[in-house]
Amino acid sequence: MNIFSFTAHFGSEEDCRLHFKEQRDKEGVVCKRSGGTSHYWLQGKWSYECKGCRFRTSLRSGTIMESSKLPFLVWYKTMFLMSCTKKGFSTNELQKQLGLKRYEPVWAMVHKLRRAMGNRDARYTLEGMIELDEGYFSVASKEIERGKGTRGRGAEGKQNV
Fold it and tell me: What NCBIfam families is this protein classified in (predicted)?
């Protein structure tokens, strides 16, 4: 997806919110109080209401966007910018590109997205013949557990292969 098709699909806050609701409906919403899976959609409140206990769940609740006041459009633009380039963006650069004044919410959003992307990548395993130039892998070692690892800059706790 290039920037023009992204802007065509997700040009407004409403477009992003509707897309997020569609994805949330596909996954299914589970009530935090009763564990029920059947909900009413409250259009005016932009939230779900459990049919069993009438507990309300916001659209963001239970997702990485939970407890964030940033608009859906900012989240979607950040996801696009983080995934469209090989090298990625620093948090400062994202803050400038998104036109936001404060650094802290952007930093929290980027860390949540990186954690979610890492969790997604952990599900996949490589098969067959694999060729690497160089890599660092975690190793279990009693020296490291006792605190006798190398000091300073380096790959402490990693083994060069």
Answer: transpos_IS1595
